[in-house]
Each structure stands twice: as structure tokens, then as C-alpha cells.
């Protein structure tokens, strides 16, 4: 289990910000631990966040990845996926991700995927254009250079020439029809669909109990990967 998470509210520039994230590490937990400490602060310390949040988040992802790579001897050769959510005064939601940790929003009980799973087969052309390759050997999962099962991640210095770390960024308004938000690492999504996750979480009023129930359900379905989950009720 190499996951780290963030789930907290902070006061910032007179606004209430909800900060939620899941970082799913590979080859050790040093990179997700680093992200837990630094990524949100790297986003929010940029003044342009309040003018152009999407650009600011993308720049912070790039800067954080450079910082991780520059600390390679200390942090090791591993890496991490990330899904980050910033909730502004419970009215506006900004979501960013690299890798296959996912954010799913529920409106009137309907699941809406807010992130894009960055899988090697879907970004094969980009990987090959950079001189890399995608292979299902060893195993039966497509991997960048036969090693990593995601096409975007923080860290992974030995793969960085063929691996992206720029995020997909989306946003949404929170209104009276918005029920909840689920963030989870791929250990949940490999065995539970977006709609199934929403249906399970909506039945439980306490969000922490809902998150635990989703993790339990993934285990019942024999998930073999890291399982971390956050549920935010609106």
C-alpha cells in the first residue's frame, strides 16, 4: 500500500477551500508522500490561480514534477499518480489528474467522470513518437516501455523521456443537484464502475463510512491493487 491522501478545509484569501487528493505511488511511497506535502501549496501560492486556475494548476504540476526529479537521489526512482480537487466556497470545483486515480461527481444520482484515465494504449502514439514503446509483456497489462501501466505520472526518472506529467484539468459548478464526489485510486475503479460507486455512496449519509464501504466492496470483489477512497457530500 503506497497511497497517500489529503482531505481538509482551509481558509485562504477570505475563502473556504476544500482540498482533496489521492496519490497512488509505485516503487515506494516517497513520491506520493512528497506530493501530499507540496502539491497543493505549489498550486495555491501562484497569484494567477485566482485569474486562470487551469493554467495555474498545470504549471504547478510541471514545477512539482521537476522538483521531484531534482530530488531523485533522496526520493528514489519511483513515481505516483495524482488526482487533486479544489473546492472553492462549496460553489466551484477544480479537478486535475495524472494517471488512473479518478474523480467521479454525482448529479441527481448520475455518475459523471471528471478525470481521464491515462493509459498507455490510449496515448501510444505520443509514447512512440518520443522513442518509447508500449508492451503487454510481462503480464497482460499495457505498460510504457514494458514497465509502467500508466502513461502519465510524477517522478519515474528512468521513464521520463517517454512519460508525461501534464494534467487534464476540468471544472464544475456545485448546485442543488450535486450529490457527492468520489476520489479513489485504481484499486476501486478496476472492480467497481462509476455508477456502482455512486449508488453505494448515496445510500450512506456519513461520507467517511461511505468511503470505507467502497473500499470494502472493492476487497469483496477481489481487487489486488492499492485502494484509497474519499467521499465528499454536498
From TrEMBL:
Domain of life: Eukaryota
InterPro entries: PP2C, PPM-type-like_dom_sf, PPM-type_phosphatase-like_dom
GO terms, molecular function: metal ion binding; protein serine/threonine phosphatase activity
Start and end residues of each PPM-type phosphatase domain: 1-234
Catalytic activity from the UniProt record: O-phospho-L-seryl-[protein] + H2O = L-seryl-[protein] + phosphate; O-phospho-L-threonyl-[protein] + H2O = L-threonyl-[protein] + phosphate
Gene3D superfamilies: PPM-type phosphatase domain
Keywords assigned: Hydrolase, Magnesium, Manganese, Metal-binding, Protein phosphatase
Cofactor: Mg(2+); Mn(2+)
EC number annotated for this UniProt entry: 3.1.3.16
Pfam families listed in its UniProt record: PP2C (PF00481)
Family: Belongs to the PP2C family.
Protein name, as recorded: protein-serine/threonine phosphatase
